[in-house]
Amino acid sequence: MIKIKIDGKALEVKPKTSIIEVADKVGIDIPRFCYHKKLSVAANCRMCLVEVKNFAKPLPACATQVMEGMEISTKSKFTKDTQKSVMEFLLINHPLDCPICDQGGECDLQDTAVAYGASKTRYTEEKRVVFDKNIGPLISTDLTRCIQCTRCVRFLKEVGGMAELGLIGRGEHAEISAYVDKSVESELSGNIIDLCPVGALTSKPFRYSARSWELSRRSTIACHDSLGSNIEAHVKDNIVKRVIPKENESINECWISDRDRFSYEGLNHKDRINLPLKREKNQWKEIDWEEAYELIEKNITDIDIKKSNKIGIICSPQSTLEEGFLLKKIAKELNTSHIDYRLLEKSFSENNNWLGCKIDEIESHDAILVVGSNLKHDQPLLAHRFRRYANKRNNFSIITSYDDFYSTRCLEKVIVNPSAYINYLLMILKQVQLSTKYKINSEVIRNLLKAVKPSNEAKRIAKSLLSNKSRAIFLGHQILHLDDGDNIKLVAMHIAQAVGATFGLIPGYANSVGLNELNLNTDNISADKILSQSKEAYIMMNFDPLYDYHSPKKINSALKKAKFNLAISPYISDSFKEFDVVLPMTPFTETSGTFINMEKTIQSFSAVTPPVGQSRPGWKILRVLANFLQLEGFSYDSSEEVKTDAMIEMDKKNEFSLNDFKPSNIERGIEVLNVVRANDSDMIVRRAASLHQNKNKDQSCCLINPTTMLEEGLIDGQKIKISSSEAEILINVKADDNVCLNAVVIYGKQDETFILGMHNKVKIKKA
Q1: pLDDT tens-place string over residues 351-363
Q2: Domain residues of the chain, as ranges?
C-alpha cells in the first residue's frame, strides 16, 4: 500500500491504481467521457484533468497511476478552469440539440456542461457536420454530436469480440465509422447505446417513443438464457418502451445481450392472444375463461386416469419455478409421471447440470477446457468472460464443431465433428491417466482407452489441465442434444476428477437448472418417449411445438393421434393447429416468478406491466385449472406461496454414476449442425422485429467446409438438397473453413430450416 492525499484527505491505496479509480472509491466526482471502468484507458477526452502537486501541467486522472506521497486536487481553481476549458472545446462542434435528442435528460455531456461549462464560448466558427451512417436496425447515429470518446470502438473490440467500428480521419475531420458496407452485428452491440455519453448513438427501436423522465423504471430478470441477467424495464402507459442493464457485477456486470435489450418488441406482437381460443372446424374461436376451463375439465375427466400415464405434459425450460412445480403437482394428481421440459435433449442424465462454480469465478481458473458450445450465440455475455480470460492467459482450449469464437487467443482450438467429441475426450483422459495413474472402474471405458492414441492437441490440453493448480472443464448444452451426450459428459467428468478440476455444464435456458433442481421428471422419462407412447391428451406450456422441439415431425404426429390437446401460450401461430384449446398466458414481464440461473442463484421477479387483455400469469392458469379439475392442494393466493412449496420439493435428486458408460452405435455420415442464433432462441425474440431486420447473409444458406464440398462435388453458391429423417429442404451452400469436416451448418429455428429438425444425420446432393 502507498500513501497519498486527494483533496487534503490522506489515503492508503494499492499501487498501480489510477487517480480516477481512487476518487470513485472515496466518492469524489471527477468528470469523464472516455473513461469506463470495464474498458481500456484511452485518455482522449481530457475531461478528467486534475492538478497534482509538483507537476506543471494537469494530468488525466484515468491514465495517471498514483505514486507514493502524491497530492491530488480535484477541486482547485486550476483544476476547475482546466476542465471548463476542455468542456468549452468539446462543445465547439456539438449541435446543442437537447430538446430533440433522445438522450436528453440522461446525457453525460448535458450534465457535465451544466456543472463545468462556461456561460458563453469564445469560438464563433461554424460547427462542422458529420453525415450519419446506417450501422444496422438497432442503433441510430447522430454523429455530429460525437466527441470521439471511442467508448463504442473499444467496447466492440474488447467486449463484443469484433472490431466493427473505428475512428477515421484526424483533428477536425475525425469521425466514428463502420467498415465499408458493413453493419454492427455483435450480439452485444446495444451496450454502446448506454456507453455513448452524448447521444451520438441511440436506440433505433426506442427513438422518439418517450422521454426519459416519462418512464417508470422496474427491475426484473431476463428470460432468454441461463445467465439470468439483471435488467430494468422502462414503462410508459403500461407498455415496455425499452430495456437497459441493471448492474450486477457477479452475473452480467453492467452489460446485457441484444436479445435481452430488444426482445420487448415481441411482447405486444400481433400473435399475442388476449382470450382463450377453441378450435371449431379448423378455425379459432374466442371464448371466455369459464367456458375454456369447462371444456378442458370435460375432456380431461373423460380420461380414465386410474390407468397411469394417459396424459403427457411438456413445458418450456423457460417456465418459472412456480409453473414447473404446479405442473408437476397436477401431473401427480392426474396419475402421470410423463412430464418433461427438455425440448432439445437426447441425453438425460440429471446430475451436474449447472455451471459447477460461480459465474464470476470462471476467470479465476488457471486452465479452462470448453467442449461443444457455440458460445457466441448460446451465451453472448458468458462468451465475453471466456474471451477476456483467453486473451489474458494462454490456457484456454475449446473443442467445437463450428468456430465462431473469433478474436480469441486459444491454447488449442479443435474443430471436429460432434461424433468425434467422445474420441477426443478419451484421448485427453488417456494422457491424464498415464500421468496420474487415475483408476477407472468402468470396464467399458478401460477397453476403449486401450485403442486410443492421444493426438498432439490432446497431449497439450492434458498438460495444461495437469500443470495448473486451478482447472475447469465446461460442457456446452449442445452436448445433451447428441445421441452420445451422456457418454461425453461421463468421460469429461472422469477427466475433471482425475485432474481435480471444476466440472460444469453451460445450461441453455432461463430455468433449465431450476426445473432440474425441482426434479420435474421424477421417472426421468424424456419428452421423446412421452411423444412416442400413445396418449389420450397432451398439455404443453410456453413453447412453439414446431420451432422449439427438436423433431417437428414427431411432435406433430403425437398431437394428431391424441384425443385432446391443450396449449398454454402467449402466442398463436400455425404451429398450434393440432391443439383443441389454447389458453393465453402472460410473458415474463407480466407475471411474477422465479428463475434459477446457471450458477444456482435463485432470482425472483415481479411483473413490470399488467397482463394484456385477459391473458393471465402461467401459475394462476394452472392453479385455477387444478381447481376446475377438483384436484386437492391448490389453494395458493400468490406466486410466493407456490415458491415456498417448490423450494421444499427441490431437495430430492437423482444420482449419476461414473460407471454408467453405455456403448453406442453412432451412425456415421454428414451431420447437420444447428446453430441457433441468439435472436432465434425462443418465441419472444423471434417476434422482435428489429432483431431480424439485419439478417446476416449467411443465414439464408448452409455452411460446409471446402474439403467436404469437394468430396461431395459441390460448388460454392449452388443450391443443394438436404434430406433428414424429418424432411428435406432446398438451400444455397457457402464454403466456410470454420466448419468441421463431414458436417453442414444451418441456422436453426427459422422458417427456412425448422422443418429439417435438429441433431440429425443428413444426406446432401445437388438440387
Answers
A1: 678 999 999 999 9
A2: 2-90, 124-266, 277-347+513-636, 359-506, 670-766
